[in-house]
Each structure stands twice: as C-alpha cells, then as structure tokens.
Amino acid sequence: MNNNVIKPEWIDTLLNVLREFAEIPNDEIVRFTDQIKVVKVAKNDHFINVGDRTDKVAFIAEGLFRIYYLSDTGKENCLVFREGGRFLSAYNSLLDNTVSRYSFQALEDSVLLYISLEDYAILLEGDECWQRVVSKYFQMLFIEKEEREVAFLSADAQQRYRLFIRKYPNLSGRISQYHIASYLGITPEALSRIRKKHIDIDQ
Predict the structure, then answer these.
(1) What is the domain extent for residue 98?
(2) Cα(75)–Cα(178) distance, integer angstroms
(3) pTM for the whole structure
C-alpha cells in the first residue's frame, strides 16, 4: 500500500472547510490541491515539538491531537484538542518566524494533509481569497482562545468540565482521563470525583 496516496474524500473535506471561510475560484483550488502532501503520525508521536520551527501548514484528515506545553516544573498543560476537520500548525511560529512554544501530539493514529510554508506564503501573495480564509480562521482562533481564558477566570472545575463536554461532545471516550484533567487544570483524581458527580446529576 502506498502511504503517500491522498484519498479524494480527504480533499473534499478540506475544501468544504475552506469554503466555509471564503469562496475559492476553481483555478485556485487546482493550484492549491496540486501542492498538498500527506503525512501519517502514529499515536503518541509528535507532529511538532516545542522549540521546532514550523515548515508546514496542516489539516487533520483523520485522527486526534492535543496541543500542550510544559510548565517550569515540568507539568504538562493541555491548551486544546484538535480532531479531524481542523487545521494544525504552530501559528506563533508562522506569524513571528520563531520556534514553536507548544508541542502537538497525536492521541490516535492520524493523517495530515499539508502544504509547505513556502507554498503557503505563495498562496497568500496570490488570489485574495486566501487572505480571507486566513483572516476568518484567525478570528475563530481568537474567539476560541478568549472563551478558554474566560472559563479559567470565571468557572470552577466542575463548570469547566461541563464546558469541555459541550465543546468536545464526541471526544470524552477517545481521550485519557490524564489528558482531560490536564486540559481542565486539575488532577486526574479531582476529575474522577467531578465525573461521578456529573453522572449522578444526569441520572
């Protein structure tokens, strides 16, 4: 089996997501899809490590990732989960031309479609549709970041767990308790108590 084969349904999903941000002319679609490559990331492997320089802009065709960083004491802090149908890159590295501040780990065997940073830059210099796509996407990231910060400032751990369930309704069975606790900023033991209360309330 050729691991470099790109399935048509992966491309269709990617294009459908892009069209949610902007209308893309057919000739731009052809130019874009000609540049796409595929990489498979095995469960627990990293797509990007902290300190890496980003050279790819990727789209998750299949699988699941967590984005996290290490505190000064070595504690892992999960910022966000990314499942199929989302983009994946160290955007601070792209914008600032610096190394990534975060690590991107596959929580399942995953497939990424990607273009090189060089091809990404060429796209942005071409048709204005790509600028609209990037602008809309970064607006979405900003809103997501703001909602996350507000939750940590104004919600207790149980409320944050309920927000997690609403934000990621299909992921709780695919993510370990350790990683969920890291995302919520609590210990796995505290998460166990919260989950028990959550089940009791819902029954």
Answers:
(1) 8-129
(2) 12
(3) 0.90
Question: Tens digits of per-residue pLDDT, 163-177?
Answer: 999 988 888 789 999
Q: How far is CA 148 from CA 34, 142, 177, 186, 188, in A?
A: 36, 10, 19, 15, 20
Task: Give the residue with greater pLDDT, 105 vs 167.
Answer: 105
Q: Which CATH number is 88's domain given?
A: 2.60.120.10
Q: Are strands 37-41 and 64-70 parallel, antiparallel or unpaired?
A: unpaired
In a domain, 118, yes or no: yes
CA–CA separation, 123 and 119 (whole Å):
6
How crowded is the C-beta side of 29, counted as CA atoms within 13 Å?
13
Rounded to an integer, what distance in angstroms lies between the CA atom of residue 135 and that of residue 117? 17
Whether residue 119 is contained in a domain is answered as yes
State the pLDDT at residue 203: 33
The predicted-structure confidence for 71-100, as pLDDT tens digits, reads as follows 888 889 999 999 999 999 888 777 777 889
The total number of structural domains that make up the chain: 1
Please report, as a single letter, which amino acid is at residue 70.
L
- Judge whether 90 lies within some domain: yes
Q: Which residues contact 75 (CB under 8 A, 6 or more apart)?
A: none
